[in-house]
Amino acid sequence: MSTAHEVRASEYVDRPYERVSEILRLDAIGVFQRATASATARARALVSTMRTNLGPIELGAEVIVRITGVEEDRDAPLGPRTRLRMTWQASHRAELFPKMQATLEACSLAPNETQLDFEGTYDPPFGVLGAAIDAMIGHRIAQAAVHRFLEEIAERLRVDAAP
């Protein structure tokens, strides 16, 4: 029986799809780094920091993000879309954190508006115990981290795709 859990988030970027798509296709890892890393962490290749707040506590883990595929569908029924398939895992003590497989999709909504959709699945660590912890609080932490991650990406794209 699979213990995989889904997380989803959506954001909007008030920039043209063509520009957003180009930036993601050419430099997705750079966008992720610039969006989520502190100044010193940015200097480390392919490492981002996933963070979320849980009440007064901020949780975080440096993660290694890998782009495993890029697809562009210019003839999609609802308009062009770009999909980035990715994986990530904690860069230190990976066995303590979930590993994620996800897709980030950018699609055109209007001439100057792009929608970003994130869909991912993860398996909690520690088997049955991890699944129980995930059911109590872990899934909310994962969902909040993904939402924050996508917000930061959208904000970075607004800067990077500015005229």
Q: Which outline best applies?
A: elongated
In which range does the helix fraction lie? 25-40%
- Could you tell me the CATH topology label: Alpha-D-Glucose-1,6-Bisphosphate, Chain A, domain 4
What is the CATH first-level class name? Alpha Beta
DSSP summary: helix tally: 3
How many structurally independent domains? 1
* Order of strands, widest sheet: 1-6-5-4-3-2
Major sheet description: 6 strands, antiparallel
- Give the structural class: alpha+beta
CATH architecture: 2-Layer Sandwich
User: Based on DSSP secondary structure assignment, what is the total number of beta strands?
Assistant: 6
Q: Calculate Rg over CA atoms.
A: 16 Å
Oligomeric assembly = single chain
Mean pLDDT: 80
Task: Please indicate the percent range of residues in DSSP E strands (runs of 2 or more).
Answer: 35-45%
Series of H and E elements:
EHHEEEEEH
> What's the N-to-C terminus distance?
49 Å
CATH superfamily: START domain
What would you note in describing this structure?
The chain is α+β, with helices and mostly antiparallel strands and 163 residues long. It has a single domain (5-160), classed as Alpha-D-Glucose-1,6-Bisphosphate, Chain A, domain 4, CATH 3.30.530. The chain is 36% helix and 41% strand. It has a six-stranded antiparallel β-sheet with strand order 1-6-5-4-3-2, covered by helices on one side. A hairpin with a 7-residue loop joins strand 3 (57-73) and strand 4 (81-90).
Q: Which keywords apply here?
A:
163 residues; alpha+beta; Alpha-D-Glucose-1,6-Bisphosphate, Chain A, domain 4; six-stranded antiparallel sheet; 3 helices; 6 strands; 36% helix
